[in-house]
Design brief:
The chain is of the alpha/beta class and 208 residues long. The protein folds into two domains: 1-68 and 150-208, P-loop containing nucleotide triphosphate hydrolases (Rossmann fold), CATH 3.40.50.300; 77-148, no CATH class. It has five helices and nine strands; from the N terminus they run E-E-E-H-E-E-H-H-H-E-H-E-E-E. It has helices at 46-54, 85-96, 104-117, 133-145, 163-178, and strands at 8-17, 20-30, 35-39, 61-66, 70-73, 151-155, 182-187, 198-203, 206-207. Strand 6, helix 5 and strand 7 form a beta-alpha-beta unit.
Length: 208
């Protein structure tokens, strides 16, 4: 992949709900090995924009082109509440195709690192419906990282994390950046502005 070629390009993204324009012709480019932040008030359309970039929602007009393996960490975890932590990880690994023979050893090592990094060791047999909000968010992050994505789209990723896991998140993110991975973090506000290569504000449907 050419370093100066965007791994994600969105052109003229527009989205309306009930006649109200939430996104008004959004244009954005993301490049390899960069950290990006997206901030804005409640209801400004941040989550809408991220869901469109991730391919979960459709824009009314505009295009999104992604040229890499992508991971998505939504604000509300998409977990199976009646399954255990381990069962959720297994189910999502199957969805990612990680059960194929050529991935098995790499996946197992990667899974162990993620569980340790995000303090989930010892929770493998726990039913998700009985987990705390913070622990569910840790699992949400692990699942988004299972397939070792090149681009990670994160919606309020550390809002319910404890301080130790918050620090672990940034330590792990730093290692991802060294490997050329790209992060787009959506949040009400970003404490660690110095970690970001670029920050946009979404206001009145426009990126500033």
């Amino acid at each position: 992949m050419i370093k100066d070629t965007p791994i994600l390009t969105a052109n003229s993204i527009c989205k309306s709900f009930g006649g109200k324009a939430v996104l008004k012709g959004i244009n954005i480019e993301l490049f390899r090995g960069k950290f990006y932040g997206l901030v804005g008030e409640n209801g400004s359309g941040k989550t809408t924009m991220l869901n469109i970039l991730a391919g979960f929602w459709k824009a009314n007009t505009g295009t999104v082109e992604i040229n890499c393996r992508t991971g998505f960490c939504p604000q509300e975890p998409y977990l199976f509440s009646n399954l255990t932590v381990a069962e959720n990880i297994t189910l999502f690994s199957l969805a990612y195709g990680l059960n194929r023979k050529e991935y098995l050893q790499k996946y197992e090592e990667h899974r162990k690192i993620l569980l340790e990094t995000f303090n989930l060791k010892g929770y493998e047999k726990s039913i998700c419906s009985k987990l705390s909000e913070g622990t569910r968010q840790k699992l949400n992050l692990v699942i988004s990282l299972l397939h070792d994505p090149d681009l990670l789209l994160l919606d309020e990723p550390y809002s319910s994390l404890d301080w130790d896991t918050y620090l672990r998140f940034w330590d792990y993110s730093g290692k991802l950046k060294q490997k050329g991975k790209t992060l787009l973090i959506v949040s009400h506000f970003i404490y660690d502005k110095s970690r970001m290569d670029k920050i946009w504000e979404l206001s009145n449907g426009d990126l500033l």
